[in-house]
Amino acid sequence: xxxxxxxxxxxxxxxxxxxxxxxxxxxxxxxxxxxxxxxxxxxxxxxxxxxxxxxxxxxxxxxxxxxxxxxxxxxxxxxxxxxxxxxxxxxxxxxxxxxxxxxxxxxxxxxxxxxxxxxxxxxxxxxxxxxxxxxxxxxxxxxxxxxxxxxxxxxxxxxxxxxxxxxxxxxxxxxxxxxxxxxxxxxxxxxxxxxxxxxxxxxxxxxxxxxxxxxxxxxxxxxxxxxxxxxxxxxxxxxxxxxxxxxxxxxxxxxxxxxxxxxxxxxxxxxxxxxxxxxxxxxxxxxxxxxxxxxxxxxxxxxxxxxxxxxxxxxxxxxxxxxxxxxxxxxxxxxxxxxxxxxxxxxxxxxxxxxxxxxxxxxxxxxxxxxxxxxxxxxxxxxxxxxxxxxxxxxxxxxxxxxxxxxxxxxxxxxxxxxxxxxxxxxxxx
Length: 430
Ligand code: UD1
Prior knowledge:
By secondary structure, the chain is α/β, with parallel strands linked by helices. The protein folds into two domains: 3-32 and 244-429, Enolpyruvate transferase domain (UDP-n-acetylglucosamine1-carboxyvinyl-transferase, Chain, Alpha-beta prism), CATH 3.65.10; 35-241, Alpha-beta prism (UDP-n-acetylglucosamine1-carboxyvinyl-transferase, Chain). 33% of the residues lie in helices and 25% in strands. The strands form six sheets. The protein has a four-stranded mixed sheet. Strands 2-15-17-16 form a four-stranded mixed sheet, covered by helices on one side. Helix 2 packs parallel to helix 3 (61-73), helix 9 (246-258) runs parallel beside helix 11 (321-328) and helix 11 runs parallel beside helix 13. The relative contact order is 0.15. Uridine-diphosphate-N-acetylglucosamine binds at residues 36, 39, 106, 134-139, 174, 176-179, 200, 317-319, 341-342.
């Protein structure tokens, strides 16, 4: 590795965010593209050959890792502002190196795309992550039904096409987002009909289907629980604009309400956010919805929320939980939050406590006491959305908070400090 590259990596790892809290956030922002859409869509460009052009790609480190994977596979990628061109004419590898798998667990979504394009794939097992164990049994079951033989050896997963399946039907026993995406990606180049029952319904699934359809695939039912894929012999390069990031939007809205402020978010699809908007409404916020814009005004005193439960879409999204929990620390009473999607999502709560948060956790349940007096402290991110919770709480705290291990935050928020600076936060990254 050359020294310059090492120094810049080290710089990213060592930099911290400093927030002088207690400022009321006010203003207008424009949502960036969705992390959870851009990653499977970048993987999907592999299936298209030629040069695909993807607009509204967020400048986040998970996208950087995806581009490293595409480069390793033989693609030529260029990036200008938020547009990425991927030339997938020549694929020279069919594996994802262990270091890249470790950098980004969601690299697993490349499995279906690589296998679909080349007929075989090798990835290292993604293992556990900061949210607890994250098995990929459903991904592998689906690929197996699509005619791929799967075997594991010394921490690697091998996936080889052995037969042409006869109109496979895949029943997911849980509507896993990643398994649904991998299945769509692999099936898009298998001529014939594939049915996915109990598919994930998230907006990012619809975005992936729209991209694949624009490339010549024929996918019906995305957004519903049964998806039908009529696979094609060939797909073609295409151009696509990634949908707005509903979780980043939820985070900035939570920050505005936590500080008693008001915010307008442009370029957003309110319909994708209904469960989160419902929570803001229960907290007493005043919402005005337009076709592609949301305005939110904080209540005089934020109400507590008796129960919030995370669910698959269209329920309340697990990823919006941490920033909303941080916001509720400033509410008028006791809120209860039940996490139903991931086993171990409350690691960041110990860091929130350093700021004075009064939160107790019991397994997958958190009890959040409002009226917390939050004061600045040194904290560290434990994961991406936990990091976002620390930012929201720091903005609502008196005094300075130093947030370390922000590499987690940079995975999913584009220029977070610039966004917050533009609406009145006292924040610096150095
Ligand atoms: C995606 C999102 C992530 C979000 C999550 C749930 C991306 C890149 N990430 O993750 O931000 O929090 O959806 O909305 O889009 N499971 C299994 N076996 C499997 C697959 C999943 O048991 O084969 C379990 C997981 O352990 C977890 C649950 O299903 O408990 C949900 O996982 P899944 O929907 O697959 O989430 P991801 O696709 O990993």
